[in-house]
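Attaching the record inline, Q. Sequence:
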Amino acid sequence: NDTYDYLNDGMVAYTKLEFDQSYEKDFESNKLYDFVEYVCDGYSTAQTMQRSVTFMKEQKFWIVSDYAVPTDPSVENLFAQHWHVYPGANPTHDENYIIRTNFDDVNAMIVPLEFNEIDDIQYVDRLYSERKGMKITDKKAVITKSKAGDAKFTTLIIPINIDEDFEVTSLVLENENEID
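Structure, as predicted:
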C-alpha cells in the first residue's frame, strides 16, 4: 500500500503523505441506505480529507464522496482518486471518464459526476494479494484533477450485467428547497 494512498486508495494530494489520524465521523443504517463517513487528518498538504460512502439499498448502487481541504488554498494541488479492481478486470473508460470493468459476467461502472473537472485517467501497475505470499501484478485506474482550493470527487459505483448500460444525469442544487 503506497504511503500517499488515502482510505483504501481514495483521494490524495500527490506528494508523499503520511497520515496521523483517521476516524469514523458518522454512521447510519436504515431500510433505505447505509452511510458511513471517515475523516483523515494530519497530511502535510491537506488540513483534512474525508470520504463518505452511501449504499442505496433498493437501487443497489454506491455513492462515494471524497472531499479535501488543502493546507494552502491558494496553491494549485494535484488530487488523485485510485480505483482498485480485481485482477483481470481490464478497466477501460469513455470520453466522460466513466470506468468500466470488463469481466465475462457481472461488471461495475465507476461514474465520476464532476467529469468536466478531471484532467486525466491513467492505468498504473499495482500489486494484488489474496493471501500471504501471493502477489499478482495488475492495473488500477487513477483519476486526477488539478485545482486550487477545496477539491471533491463524487462517484457512483453501479454493478451491471453484460450488455447492460445506465444513463446518469447529475444536477447541482443550490439549496434544499429545489428538491421536489
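The CA atoms of residues 1 and 155 lie 22 Å apart. The first strand starts at residue 11 and ends at 13.

More tomorrow.
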